[in-house]
Amino acid sequence: LSVLLSLLVPAHTTRSPDCGGILTPSGLSYRKSGPRNSHAISREGRQQHLSVRRNQINSIKVAELSLSLIPDTGLRLSSNVDFSITPTLSTTKVMRLSILVDLQVEMNPEGNLELVTSACKPTVEEMQSTEEKESQSSSSDVDEEINIDKICLEVSKLLLLPNEELMSLTAQFPVTPSCQVQYLPLAAPVFSEQGITISLQTTFQVAGMVIPLPVSPVPFSMPEPASSSPSHLTLAFSEHFYTSLFFALEIAGAFNMTIPSPLTTATMAQKITQMGSLFQEDLPVTLQAVFRSSPRVVLEEGKGALKLFLTVHIGAGSPAFQSFLSVNVDMSAGLLLSIADIRMMISAAVIEDIELSLAASDVGPVPAALLEELFLPTIREEVPAQMNVVLSEGVFLPHISSFTYTDVNVTIHKDYVLVPCNLELRARTG
């Protein structure tokens, strides 16, 4: 396999996306409103990361947390945190810390997306005090009690968890034991009023080696989302994405099939007389199918088709398989797509079209009608069934570790598939 991979054409040097996603403003709103965000801020405050000097924090509460898009720039995080402190035994003060942070998403040298702060402006004001009005602290007193300089440093620490989640986007996921898929961002996301658009390029590894994928005949770009879409996220996959997936599985040998047949050499000899001279005893007939050309996926409006180009070797004998017929098979199957959790489920449906033609024969000429009579029912049934066993685990979608997808709708368009869905925060123990 390593030799085969090394002989493949070099990988194309121009990097282009074959899938991606658009996180909508409603998805962004859901993302920031998760309980973990407020808990993180509260936890940091309780550990005195708000830098209160010589004072005890009694309570802390995130009063407001908002995250908004700034088109062409990034995000703006606004947070109001109320907390009470006791500067003296007889005094309790309720303070409000307001933080305004501008965020950008950049690509780091390792190729991962990273959330960074580009501006940070904290302000602190006293909301309530048990002291008499005339003895309330001045603003300078507040500045002495709260170390504002350190607040932005602590805000940046709160980005550690989101950045860990962003790193999980580029993890390798198994498709089969010898084949892994990985989604790599090509550039920093694009921020617009419609949402945050990320363009991704799919890579596959077979036996630990990155395989060069066929070049997409049509450059892919993320389609514009519907402005009225209520979904949190819209994923898009190009026709080339699916063709690359089947190409990788073919290179990995996942679709090489051994197909049992109801025929034996004796029953075939009744139809093809020269069979009798090849086999002196009655043996079960077996079919071995390999791809003579890579599978191809064709997407049209509302439907998808999987084009298969096989050579089926027909023979008998075990363990020494002796082939006496080879048949070229061109077939087209409907492509079924659905989403389960964070995986795309792909299956070949009913065979819509199939053609058999003789490729090689050790038993003389065999009419096309006889080939179809003997082998077509078995090939029609077994080829999609065995491919579906390979595909049954599904293919991991681009995702970050803490979320799963719900309320999913898969829509096939010409040349691409759209998957609008909602986000759901996974429960995390510990």
TrEMBL record:
<dbReference type="Pfam" id="PF02886">
    <property type="entry name" value="LBP_BPI_CETP_C"/>
</dbReference>
<feature type="domain" description="Lipid-binding serum glycoprotein C-terminal">
    <location>
        <begin position="227"/>
        <end position="421"/>
    </location>
</feature>
<dbReference type="InterPro" id="IPR051660">
    <property type="entry name" value="BPI_fold-BPI/LBP"/>
</dbReference>
<dbReference type="InterPro" id="IPR001124">
    <property type="entry name" value="Lipid-bd_serum_glycop_C"/>
</dbReference>
<protein>
    <submittedName>
        <fullName>Protein TENP</fullName>
    </submittedName>
</protein>
<dbReference type="GO" id="GO:0008289">
    <property type="term" value="F:lipid binding"/>
</dbReference>
<dbReference type="InterPro" id="IPR017943">
    <property type="entry name" value="Bactericidal_perm-incr_a/b_dom"/>
</dbReference>
